[in-house]
Amino acid sequence: MAESAFTLSFGDLRKEVSEYLYGGTGASTVTHKADVITRMIQSGLRQFYSPPPVGQHLHDWSFLKPTTEKQLNAPYTSTKAVTYTANGRLVSLTSPDEWPERFYNEDGDTDLSDNSAANNGVFIDLLGISYPVTQFTGARTAALSATDNPGSSNLAAADGLTEVKIHQDDYDLPDDFGRIMGDLTFSEKDKSWHTVKIVGENRIREMRQRDFAVGSTTEPYYAAIKPKAQSATDSIGSRQVIQFWPAITSDATISYRYRVRASHDVTQTNKHPYGASDHSETILSSCLAAAEQRLDGQRGVHYARFMECLVASIELDARSNRAENLGYNSDGSDGASLYEGRLVGSDRVRHKNISGTFID
């Protein structure tokens, strides 16, 4: 779908800021001036996406709250010969059995040496207890945590180790994930009767310390969001992970709404910021206000214009996607209507079994 002709692109914003700072549009091709223009646009966008309060009210833009899906992986159980070697804390499968690629192939290649599972929520169940995987060291071997493992003794079939189950309970969220908005839902094909409730991260840890077999179910009931640990050498900013409980027993697809942490390459002249034509004037004013602050060292007419446009943008955004019908709220005394029933076409609630057939 074509973008509106009234929507300002990053190229348009660069021209406007260049003209304000340097008196012409050619400055965007001079390296040090182009860098200043880029930083002013980035500052203006940050100010727009997280705007200052208006009338003691902080606004949250509706267009920064998309809905997306996530595939949850079914666990894999092997009943072939499996061993645990205490030296190296290695769990090993027997050829031709291999770990399913979905548990380790994050980066799209087949090189196992760069696939660490330390923050990816992959667990291996041995003798009824789940242990976190820290590294897949081969197609059939995986290393367990140095602090959470079966101990200093080797294990094999003679010790009761006759099967191994691998499952993923934590999943990386999108790079632009800011925060979750409401409960998570399953796809229709999953035939779930409940949503996934968001709880505190400590609640997930509390439930995971119990026997996993007790809580095993078709799909999880609870989820929590937590930040990923960062090292001093990480080249990316903070990212977040979603944790589920109990462990899922089959493939499923979840949907959720989240608040975007906006990120743009503002040098891409034919790309557009969030907000479309409805808020282009507010975005432009915000970028010019940032440039004004740099040029004059204080707020001026462009910041005043930005705040004026911001009030209008907030009012417009508040009207966008507003629910016209908040749901069932009738005693039926005025007679039946098309929208009166709790379910479309009937005032009676009916129930389906797991196969999708009505049971009443």
What does this structure look like?
With 360 residues, the chain is of the alpha+beta class. It has three domains: 10-61 and 275-319, no CATH class; 80-162, no CATH class; 171-260, no CATH class. Helix content is 22%, strand content 21%. The protein is built from six helices and 14 strands. The chain has helices spanning 10-22, 31-49, 201-208, 212-215, 280-296, 301-319; strands at residues 67-72, 76-78, 82-85, 90-93, 122-126, 129-136, 141-144, 164-168, 170-172, 177-186, 197-198, 222-227, 240-245, 252-260. The strands form three sheets. It has a seven-stranded antiparallel beta sheet, with no helix packed on it. It has a four-stranded mixed beta sheet with strand order 9-13-12-11. Helix 5 packs antiparallel against helix 6. Mean pLDDT is 85; it is low at 107-111.
Short précis:
This protein has 360 residues and is α+β, with helices and mostly antiparallel strands.
Helix and strand topology:
Layout: H1 10-22, H2 31-49, E1 67-72, E2 76-78, E3 82-85, E4 90-93, E5 122-126, E6 129-136, E7 141-144, E8 164-168, E9 170-172, E10 177-186, E11 197-198, H3 201-208, H4 212-215, E12 222-227, E13 240-245, E14 252-260, H5 280-296, H6 301-319
Parallel strand pairs: 11-12
Antiparallel strand pairs: 1-14, 2-8, 3-4, 4-7, 5-6, 5-8, 6-7, 9-13, 10-14, 12-13
Helix pairs in contact: 1-2, 1-5, 2-5, 5-6
Describe this protein with a few key phrases.
360 residues, alpha+beta, globular, 22% helix, four-stranded mixed β-sheet
